[in-house]
What we know:
The chain has helices spanning 6-27, 33-53, 58-84, 90-120. It contains 4 helices and no strands.
Amino acid sequence: MKEQNVIVDKSKAFALRIIKLYKYLISEKKEYVLSKQVLRSGTSIGANVKEAIRGQSKADFYAKMNIALKEASETEYWLELLGESGYIENVHFDSIYSDCKELLKILMSITKSQKAIELSNK
Length: 122
């Protein structure tokens, strides 16, 4: 039976949406630079979350989650550029951007909690 983990599930679902966005941008909009950036950072979130879950230590978990947070922040930036430049229609932008913001909130909560635990143990 598969163990449920909100951040793992949401980051993977987000990565799949990013892959679809990438395919759309290169095939329909002929946009190759920003699309590659958002593909790299958007799929990296889930990869780092998955690595964090399998981390060798609490410090490793925190470091990987922090990288996932940074990748989510970078993805937010690329999505903003794609939206504001008109490559993504507003309705599609709003949906994927909202998912990105949700990931950011979850990752910020996880990293803040881990930081607080780390500081209380010192």
